[in-house]
């Protein structure tokens, strides 16, 4: 636990830390414990300072501390003491653990020293023992081991000293801490007592606080109960009022339901009728579709049946046709058809059999291979069970049996292969054919040789034995050579003729032929048998003829019969007629023994052998004379095909010859070659080359292949032998000469006709053993076969030989000693003297000890070989050493007394250096800040051909080498690049050396220097790793710039400076980031000033985007391709038009039109079309102007298409940017006015990986901006945007949440997109206020975010009406009639506006909801318009109706709205409100509709309101009940009317009161327009004084009103406290007579 952590305690602040004096300090070794103050015991700024340790010890403790209350300062002091005691206890425990650990280390170290000392003594004893025995090689090894032990012993002693020092320091520190802890133990009891007292006080305070909380809780519960009781009373009162309102509403609803039920029934009936109609239509459509499907299926089935019947008829017709043809040809049609069917079945069975046989072969091969692998495995595991002789016999027997069986099968293969014609005719049985086919399939893929093979060859050639072993049959019975071969019976080919002979005709033909023969030919009268004439020579032979030369011969024919005979020349063999001329004169009758001559002339035209006969006819029968012609041939032979050299000593040379003779008339060239490699039998004794007795099989196989190649192509073989470029092949051929058997000088030549030549075979053995070699003589003559010669010899070895003829030391390093033993064997019975010789060039590097020695009889001699290569070997090696490769081949010679041939052996080694090459040798790091690092590249090259380990050791703490911390292993001749990282810890000048040490402790050094810079500001993170960001997306990172330079005192802390220069001044520091050009980075803020001790946050934003240049060039490419495609299309159309013009009646006109068309097309389309040869030229027409990349605007469609194309083609990339941050002192007044130092520049490294965006927008040409333009408030516009997944994986998409109170709304959900899938997003824009709206929709996936900008502007619709006060008063209308009025609506905005007119009466439920909890106007006196909804028609029909009620107003358009008033009962309270809603939501205007209904034409308007403004559904009282007593005529209804007059008295002046009433006449639609009304008053006798009426009688025209004014002037002496009243009767005469009783009341008011 470190005490520095205690300084951050919450009991202390910064001011108190600096104010508290230093009390005590304790340091010990590496672990220090310091406490300069007790600042950690402070809790806040208001806390007083705490006393130090001395004050605590010296303070007097009050004896009555239990009675006193523990204060805040006392609590803090107790906590500080307790904390300090705990800290000391922890330190004591930690130091004790450290002491135990160091003691364990010391114990282990001393144990190791004792072990090393014992081992060193033991090694010293062994050295003395070996020294006395003379074993110096072991002495050297033990001495090196002793040196190693001495070094380890010294290292352990040094370690022991260090451990002892550490133990002393740890014990000293432990004792100091325990002493300090002992000082505080004396106050432990007092501290414990104070802590108990503190706990008691805390418990009492908690109990007191709990009691107060209980009382407070009780008060709160009481207050809560009172509140709940008041709320309950209020709720009961509210329920009572609501119940009253509900009762009134129920009564009203009962009246309304009477009319509502009828309406609902009518609506329900209409809906049922509509549903029935839709159901019927649906069923009808289903039936029609079913009928259509049935008809379609019937047609399809009929077509299929027709096609099948057609195919059947066609096949039947073909069968009948074939049958008729066979019958016409005279064949048996049924048999032929049956045979064809059987052949088809047979072919099918053959195919199945072949497949089955191949499967069986594969199984057989796998079984054989598995058995062979098991046998080989057992042979390797248990070699004692398979002796060599038994193995050879077993392999020979197996292979021999296999080859014999295979040869027999190959010999009889033809007999089992019937011809195709016989199969077609069915002459061979199926069983026999299957047997022959089985053997043919089995032996089809085998490569079998008919020659017998030697057992030794089979044993050596493993490949051939494996291949032949696979020929083992699966069933031995079918392949047994002893079985008799089945031969198919010969059946003559059937021939079908059209005419058949009868039996009689056949007999007659036979008799005619026999009769003809009896006339011409007579029987032989002699007793002998044979030819009647004898030819001399017997066979006419023309040997060794030349083409185009003429040869003649005479042939004597002698009659050897015993009677007179005739001789007639018949003919010559047809193929000889072109080459022979026969001169023969028939001699007539020839007696016995007589002869005649015949001359034959032969002129060959081709160089081929010819054979034939000359046919003669004698009286006794025909006979022939054979004739043959042979061309020139070679007749080659040797006198001996087996040569035995006998026993031959190694080193001697023996020759033997054979004679090659040509007995033919044709000469040929020959080539004498050796065809076999070494075939040696191992001997009991070794050879001089260390017992090398045979060559590897692979080398022998390569040699055999080369010889076969040379035989087949002698010229290429000779060229290959002369070529020395292929080292591997040459070495393989040379290995064939190791047995010493070869050909002489005459290896090839020309053998003349009838000549001979001698060929030599030379035997010069170099290894012992039996040698069998085969030679072959090859000829150019294709008719001559190869002659084989076999030679055999036995070589006897010399007595002295070396066990290892080649001593390979592998790779040796310079200046290192390498040793090996040379073992010499003596098989002689006497001792021999040996002398070892080394070539002069290598005597300074190579040594054989001893140089002379004696080897005993039949024993071994060991010589010591020492090889110490020095660097001078590269110059002194001579021809034995290759400087480039370092290969050393040193020949060694052993001279044996009384032996002519020396024993040679060779030392092979590869000598290499152990150097490392460092480039460069000097490194200058320059200036580097302490917060950054500088990397220098160095190349390390391994000059050795061995891999070497390396490591950079003893590196300073401010230098690092990477990778792998400067350690590693280098391959031979490898060169690697290393990074030397220089990261200074402070501002200073650095100069040092880097040491690279190899695995053999060789050091290679590099000198380095650099200057450390301490900048005045620091960056919290100098490297920013942005995540993989897609194109169009962005990533943001935040860093801090800190100004921690507060003081220029360099003795207390590190100060900013450059190297050892002056200190950077304290004050505000300005900075500026310079972003590289074209870097997709943004830094905010990039310029600023930081005060002393403060920091500033910097935001770095990475936004990868495609450059405008790339997009513009891609747009040009796209436009060019589209233009080319368009031009190609035009050219093709022009070409088709030209071809049409060519095909015209007149050729001349066609040619002219063709030329004109061609010229026109060339002029219009330039060179971009196709010429007459059909070649498309790549040049566009001259009149087509390609766009320039600079002309492509960012708002064009081509620009968007090009950007989308580049998004799809983009390849992931990674870029890194280094951004400099320049630093200067002070605050700049103007930009670039402060001086700055380049060395104080900080660098911010930003790693920016850019990936292909997985999601792109494909709608609207790839634009990510969705603009809704101007939309009226309340109107809703829906637009779509389509996105596509262009990645190869499924993308799980999510979207950001749009503003719930905003106008934009995402209508459909986002789902996962498979690769190349698309998804369309529907976005609605419905503004509520008039302003511009901008919002961003983020579509997120795993790797990127697609930002779609949503733009739109809400516009306030401006619609006005032609009504001034928004009131449309219809006046009075007769009940049952209607009246229509109109007003105009005008759209003054620039957008189309949707409007809807809604009547308040249709929204009665909304009106009642809004008017809930309000008093009627006659109670509260509020009679404003719209407060109360007017009366409704009793029929349920609307009183007012607006047409059209909805529509769209285009910009600047007007619309007439017609309003119809139709009352169905008498009422003066018809009132409604027409609300004009714009765009379905915005209530723009309210038009109030008012009207009255009267059953008669005359009416009166005016007077005081004596009726409620709300019409009740209760029955209206009859007027007779009201005024029956007052009116004289009870039949005329009397309507009451009240007029109240208010006169105002102003002192002595009285202002009279006036009241007006209007009398009107309604224009009735059922009467004439000229029907007027009349009104008059009854006599005014009963009117009180002071009243005056200006018009007592008059006429009212229809549709007009007249005003009657009543004036009341108070008479003099009128008492203002009394009211004067009276009444009068007004008569209205229209369609009926009506009476109004006008009641007059007066009141005098004083002002």
Q: How would you describe this structure to a colleague?
A:
This protein is an alpha+beta fold and 1647 residues long. It contains 23 helices and 76 strands. Helix 5 runs antiparallel to helix 6 (333-381). It starts with 13 loop residues before the first helix and ends with a strand. The model is unreliable at 1-67, 389-500, 523-528, 678-736, 1149-1179, 1409-1423 and 1513-1530 (pLDDT under 50).
Question: How is the topology of this model organized?
Answer:
Layout lengths: L13 H6 L4 E5 L2 E5 L17 H6 L13 H62 L2 H50 L2 H141 L4 H49 L6 H24 L8 H6 L4 H13 L12 H6 L1 H8 L6 H4 L23 H18 L12 E4 L3 E6 L5 E9 L7 E6 L7 E4 L11 E8 L7 E9 L2 E11 L4 E3 L3 E8 L4 E9 L5 E7 L5 E2 L15 H16 L1 H9 L4 H9 L5 E3 L4 E4 L3 E9 L5 E11 L7 E10 L3 E3 L3 E8 L4 E9 L5 E7 L7 E4 L2 E4 L4 E8 L5 H4 L10 E10 L6 E10 L3 E4 L2 E8 L4 E9 L5 E6 L5 E4 L4 E4 L4 E8 L6 E10 L4 E12 L3 E2 L3 E3 L3 E2 L4 E8 L14 E2 L10 E5 L7 E4 L2 E4 L4 E8 L5 H35 L4 H19 L31 H13 L3 E13 L16 E10 L3 E3 L7 E8 L4 E9 L8 E2 L8 E3 L11 E8 L6 E9 L4 E11 L3 E3 L5 E8 L4 E9 ...
Parallel strand pairs: 4-10, 12-20, 22-29, 31-38, 40-49, 41-49, 51-57, 59-66, 68-76
Antiparallel strand pairs: 1-2, 3-5, 5-8, 6-9, 7-8, 9-10, 11-13, 13-18, 14-17, 14-19, 15-19, 16-18, 19-20, 21-23, 23-27, 24-26, 24-28, 25-27, 28-29, 30-32, 32-36, 33-35, 33-37, 34-36, 37-38, 38-43, 39-42, 42-47, 44-46, 44-48, 45-47, 48-49, 50-52, 52-55, 53-56, 54-55, 56-57, 58-60, 60-64, 61-63, ...
